[in-house]
């Protein structure tokens, strides 16, 4: 029983990271229809920049996080402006290919600048042990879960109640009508990229604090695809909870079956899910049958 | 001045090429390729073999992604399946290499049905993710099913004798790879000018309209998967012949991305485009290395430490720049140049 609870707890921890990245996938997909294959690399870039910032200046942790959020927003807007904006009007296929190219470019660029050695990411929130009944968590692991729920709630409230959030949903629904109603569609697109860079950047920083600032953290981006597929590509909150489910499934299958299933259980799950429910648990069903 | 090129009968329309000049140039090219091993060093032969294998794989992927419009990020998975099938059948089951190579194509084609059938309900992005998931599952299986695949130890293949060719000699392997590349290119061109090929294009351009025209989407999408994976599997089998020691690490995500880069840079949906793209992407890191050697030694040392990263960087940049500036790829560029010359001085 203790084993089960501990597995579920560590599943929720890693699932929170998947969930955060999946939310960022879904925000870009919902507003622009583009699936950003470079999300893992954007997350990595923000984590690396934040690590360098933390090493260069003796900032207190909250200030470092604030600075990282600003850096992430700049990264997001720049990506959109330099790489995605010039491709507007091209087929989605082409834009998605561009993000695949961007992923390869960013990943290799980061490796060339920072090298391929892992470094530890020191922070004031790490190190404590927290016992909740039979479950033992590190404080940074608990922070990951808290971050996930905070971000999910913020994203939900943002899309539901703020003017900008409503404008973004309108753009997602029908770009032309939104434009006619006075929504600045281009700014909405830049905003979506900035928000998702912030969310995945925070996920990257948390991940680096939990493990290390390592050259392979981009792979978490690909690992999060199952989460966003499970939850529905166009549903940010659904994607987030998809992440928790995939995380728990991964830990349980590793704990009870083994054979490195943690790595691929998510991928097996999505192949099954796509066979049964192609638009995910919470995604909108497109009324097109071919 | 030429005013235009008129095609008057249907049979001329579906011909591979109705231009005598094109056939002459192809003959000259083949002659050069056949005499190449006599003059070239082993380094250039190895490079040429890599180009051939990449070209076969790119032609296969192009049938699926470029012609039928089904994005696949699972190229590495099918290559791995083909490569391991050949390697294991020869090493552990003492199959003759000829049959083992054929089996690698069949194995990849059968596996493609496993992804193909569920993906009939999916389009675009979902398909890209399914195929990527599939390739991770394949490499995972290869790594963990140690009893069948030797797991992390890899497979060593020895004493390759293929229809009387000794494949441990680069020149003989070169001829085998050349022959299979030519066969694949001819086969792909013939598929494209038949009913099947036109059905593929119709599905890419508008699947609903294609269905209205009486094209069975289930059938033709599956055909696209099977044919494409068969070709990719054969390319994988040739990789086993080339490396003679195979290991899961060869088949990472960068390989799938490079495969996509080949068909994008070359020109989506075109067989010569896929070959040009394969040449470009394979030679790009080599050419860069040559350029780097010319730079001051400090920079050379720095960059040669990161040669693998540089390869990824250049592949990524090639994809972005090509899609941004020349969406029709190198083959489109060539056609533009040709049009410019034939219409000169009235060209725009």
TrEMBL record, chain A:
Q: What Pfam families does the database record attribute to this sequence? A: BPD_transp_2
Keywords associated with the record: Amino-acid transport, Cell membrane, Membrane, Transmembrane, Transmembrane helix, Transport
What the record says about family reads: Belongs to the binding-protein-dependent transport system permease family. LivHM subfamily.
Provide the transmembrane region boundaries.
Answer: 6-27, 59-79, 91-114, 142-159, 190-209, 229-252, 264-282
Where in or outside the cell? Answer: Cell membrane
The yes or no answer to whether the keyword NADP is present is no
Extract the InterPro entries matched here. Answer: ABC_transp_permease, BCAA_transport_permease
Q: How does it sit in the membrane?
A: Multi-pass membrane protein
Return the protein name: Branched-chain amino acid ABC transporter permease
Q: What is its main location?
A: membrane
Task: List the lineage, top down.
Answer: Bacteria, Pseudomonadati, Pseudomonadota, Alphaproteobacteria, Sneathiellales
Domain of life of the source: Bacteria
UniProtKB/TrEMBL annotation, chain B:
Q: How does the record classify its membrane topology?
A: Multi-pass membrane protein
Record's keyword annotation contains Thylakoid: no
Protein name, per record: Branched-chain amino acid ABC transporter permease
Ordered alphabetically, the record's keywords are:
Cell membrane, Membrane, Transmembrane, Transmembrane helix
State which residue ranges cross the membrane. 21-39, 45-64, 76-93, 99-117, 124-145, 173-192, 222-241, 261-284
Spell out the Pfam families in the cross-references: BPD_transp_2
- Compartments where found: Cell membrane
Q: In which organism is this protein found?
A: Sneathiella marina
